[in-house]
Amino acid sequence: MFPTELLVNSLAAGILLGGFYALIAIGLSISFGLIDVVNIAHPTFIILAGYIVYMLNLITGIDPVILGVSLSPIFYVLGVVVYGAYNRAFEKRGQEALMGLVFFFGILILIEVSLLLRFGVDLRTIYAPYTMESISLGILTMPLRLVYPFIAGLIIVLVLYLFFSKTFIGIATRAVSQDDLAVKLMGAKPAVIKSVAFGLSIATASIAGGLLIAMQPIHPFLDREFIGRVFAIVVLGGMGSILGTIAAGIILGVVESLTASLYGPAWALAVSFGILIAVLVLKPEGLFRR
Amino acid sequence: MKTMRFALLIPIVIIVMVIGAIIPLVVKISYLYFAGFIVLMYITLATAWNILGGYAGYVNFGTAGFFGLAAYLSAFLLESVGVSLPVALLAGGAISAALGLGIGYSTLKLRGIFFAIATLALAIVIQMIIINTPAVGGAVGFYTLRPPPPPPYTNYLEFLFVVMLGIALASIVTSRAIEKSKIGRGLIALRDDETAAECMGVPVFKLKLLAAGLSGFFMGLAGAPYPYYITYMEPISVFSLDISVNAVAMPLIGGLGTWIGPLIGAAIVAAIQQAVTVTIGSELNLVIIGVLLVAFVVAAPYGIVGLIRERIRRLS
Amino acid sequence: MSRMSILEINKVSKNFGGLQALRNVDAKINRGERFGLIGPNGSGKTTLLNVITGALPCDGGKIIFDGKDITRLPGYKRTRLGITRTFQIPKPFTSMTVLDNVVIPLMYASPKETPIHDVHETALETLRLVDLDKKANLKPGELTQIEMRKLELARALAIKPKLLLLDEVCAGLTSAEIDDVLSILRRLNEEEGITIIMIEHIMRAVMTFCERIMVLNSGIKIAEGTPEEITNNAEVVKAYLGE
């Protein structure tokens, strides 16, 4: 009923897409899943990075992925600054749930609208040499523009996994998310640790942005398409579970890809929201424990 | 003493309604009603938002979805089915109330952020559905033809202004009634601490659902007259970002959790947006509102009402 | 099913994704009793409290209050039946005054006999009980730690509950303050007949106040008896000292 070649390629595309989705979601897995900061503007930071990479690429011609990685220290600092404001204004007053959310919504709007004013609604793309090519393995045809982000995504996520399981700061971050007091007794300051973690999450946004514009055109409201996806992945993967994010990203990628092949691309978005609602209703703890 | 204050409100509301109903017959500046309708619409939206956002503490980022759904249903009923305006109003209110209850039932048992994301997602999904529904014009647009205005009004816009005034007043009275009532206290208790509230006998989930339904209802009421106001509807402007952002910014800037905050916030923000549109240009509107939103949420989270109360407290 | 028991906990279990917080816990608390619940950190005491009040659903077993099976009853309905609690770390309603904090349970969980217009007066009386009436118009943010504890207590007492669950109500208090709180509780127990279940780490308080004590360790009941029996129980000593 369903041609094997189409099925296999759809599956492969889904897996590749999933690796990339994991990279997009990993920042949120850290900020929302691990340190409980309700940064709904995470996809918006990714788009912002995408546009900056786009501009720099126009001027310098440097490869977008390299640009994305190079910008990450700046985005790290941006993350630290934003967290500082968030912490001072809301966490200290215990109002993160309501005000913190509105705060990040405000940032989301500001970034979107500023991008809109500067770049307009038209799509922006970059033509890197590899974005047009594919690898073929038998009946399998994998576009490089999907393979590249998949590999980069996996590498970054694995690096982060090692960071959070082997380094002191990484372990301290996971500890902070479970028990503030224990961390204080250890001599570390929870706010500093969270600041580092949040900075890292925004740094990943920079890399994700560079990869994003390498693989697809962007527009100022693209972030909204990703909000459902990233939250679905973070919740499905178990809040703060890095490996869970990879698995959940791939699951979402595959389901979306198959749905798009069967029913058309418009339904792909509905899939992520559908999965999100299903997970929230059935099992809010996610598939993987921390 | 509290009941006396409410008793004071009713005559004021009646007087305002009567004056508002008479003014269009006397003052013939059409811009007044053109802009006035929008201000009243936003007052209703801000007040409606505040019922769930300010009292219960659950933020809705997709007000445009509630507004737009009611507007399109109303447009369809008025044009293609041929119902009267009151029926369209009720239908609009009902469908958005149902939407509020629906999202509420699935997400209000979870943390606030999931409700917020669901509203964001819903606004996108509803817009997608409308764009793909030829019966309401799809992406191309939908025309409505204003019927003759009921006497004594000679201009339909003036009549719509009076209708919206009534709706705005109804939302304010409802909000005020809730705030000082047992329900209002229960909502504020659950906003402050859900676990403690439940342990003190407050039926937390039921109250949240009630707030979500009421909030949706008034958002729908704000949207239902819109087709006759704008006469040409296209999804991109009906589901405009302005609506979702203003619905959050106005109560926040005015003062969350009070019935008068959204009123003040709506008046001020609408005035600023008008001023900006005629001077610098309407594209900057969202940027300015965005900046104000972030500034207020960081520096003055209780809004203008909060600042005034703080000033009064310091003086006494 | 004795008429004397106000609360029966039958084989109650609670599981948190792999962590067995409570395992087949049985207990019968008598009407008007002063009952203590002790155990090392993490033994499941607060979890048991949460299961009794309905803040958490249990995974197995039954809870019977006043002859009624309340296992599936939502939390707020249990409060209306007369079960109230205090929290280890006070959870006041921060945007309302101290008085309004106490008004909430009176409005929502009063037995039918208390008419609404008495609510403010009753709230004030309750505050008088814990010596907070002078601070009735302040916000919880302006209270001291001890006063916040008292507010917790006032909120739980406002509706004259049948069963009062206290979660470490003595923590951080001075000796004199502990005596103060215990005497208020004893009076309520003796004069109003309120049954009290007390989770406590301060042994002096538990041993002098409670008539019977149950000891939990890692979710299992390891002992139950009078304060004397518990003090002399080798299992209990071992649980507290560790291996």
The assigned structural class of chain A equals mainly alpha
Question: Quick one: biggest sheet of chain C?
Answer: 6 strands, mixed
Number of domains of chain A: 1
Q: Helix count of chain C, per DSSP?
A: 9
Main sheet makeup of chain A: 2 strands, antiparallel
Instruction: List the secondary-structure elements of chain A in sequence, H or E.
Output: HHHHEEHHHHHHH
Through-space gap between termini of chain C: 38 Å
Oligomeric state of the chains present here: heterotrimer
Strand content of chain C: 25-35%
Find the biggest chain interface.
A-B, 34 and 38 residues
Tally of individual helices of chain A: 11
Write up what this structure looks like:
The complex is a heterotrimer of chains A (about 290), B (about 325) and C (about 240). With about 290 residues, chain A is mostly helical. In chain A, about 75% of the residues lie in helices and about 5% in strands. Chain A has helices spanning about 5-35, 40-60, 65-90, 95-120, 145-165, 170-180, 180-185, 190-215, 220-235, 240-265, 265-280; strands at about 135, 140-145. By secondary structure, chain B is mainly α. Helices cover about 80% and strands about 0% of the residues of chain B. Chain B is built from 15 helices and 2 strands. Chain B has helices at about 1-25, 30-55, 65-80, 85-105, 110-130, 155-180, 180-190, 195-200, 205-225, 225-230, 235-240, 240-255, 260-280, 285-300, 305-315, and strands spanning about 140-145, 230-235. In chain B, helix 2 packs across helix 12 (about 240-255) and helix 3 (about 65-80) packs across helix 9 (about 205-225). Chain B is globular. The two termini of chain B are about 20 Å apart. Helix content of chain C is about 35%, strand content about 25%. Chain C has a 6-stranded mixed sheet with strand order 6-7-8-3-9-10, sandwiched between helices. In chain C, strands 2-1-4-5 form a 4-stranded antiparallel sheet, covered by helices on one side. The interface of A and B includes residues 98 and 102 of A.
